[in-house]
Amino acid sequence: MNYKMIIRYNVEDIIKRYPYTYQLYSRIVGNDIEMPNKNTDLHITGFPRSATTLMLYIFRESVQNIKVTSHIHTIADLKKAISENVCTVVMLRDPMESVSSSVVKRRSENNESGQPISNFNDEITKKICFLSCQNYI
């Protein structure tokens, strides 16, 4: 990994920690994200490759007319959901499985950027419901 990639990774890591900076960054790079807000009924998040899509489909099939935000995969969205008192589901997966799945996926996409799983672990609070996707498969 060269210095340019290290600097980019560190800058992106700082940006992704805070809702305001991440929303601003997303607008600048043209990434249309919908952060959780006071109108959000449910927010689903977690480290990438942790069955977030599966949980999203389960909720959409089970509960009609629910506004769900998901697939942002940053600490910023988790903090925003907490600050807005949005019901939040954090998908947890064995860290080795999640990281190895991410490595395989990123290599196939030629993308080496990522987010440390410890960032999610550091930010989880008592306000979040913990569910294991193994209970739903």
What does the model show?
This protein is an alpha/beta fold and 137 residues long. Helix content is 48%, strand content 13%. It is built from six helices and four strands, in the order H-H-E-H-E-H-E-H-H-E. A four-stranded parallel β-sheet has the order 2-1-3-4, sandwiched between helices. Helix 2 (19-29) crosses helix 4 (75-83). The longest helix has 15 residues, at 95-109. The mean pLDDT is 76.
Radius of gyration: 15 Å
Low-pLDDT regions = none
The total count of helices amounts to 6
Large-scale geometry: globular
Helical content class: 40-55%
Kindly state the number of beta strands. Answer: 4
Write the layout of secondary structure elements.
Elements: H1 3-15, H2 19-29, E1 42-46, H3 52-62, E2 68-70, H4 75-83, E3 87-92, H5 95-109, H6 117-123, E4 129-132
Parallel strand pairs: 1-2, 1-3, 3-4
Helix pairs in contact: 2-4
Gist of the model:
This protein has helices spanning about 5-15, 20-30, 50-60, 75-85, 95-110, 115-125; strands spanning about 40-45, 70, 85-90, 130. It has about 140 residues and is of the alpha/beta class. Strands 2-1-3-4 form a four-stranded parallel β-sheet, with helices on both faces.
Features:
about 140 residues; 4-stranded parallel β-sheet; 4 strands; about 15% strand; globular
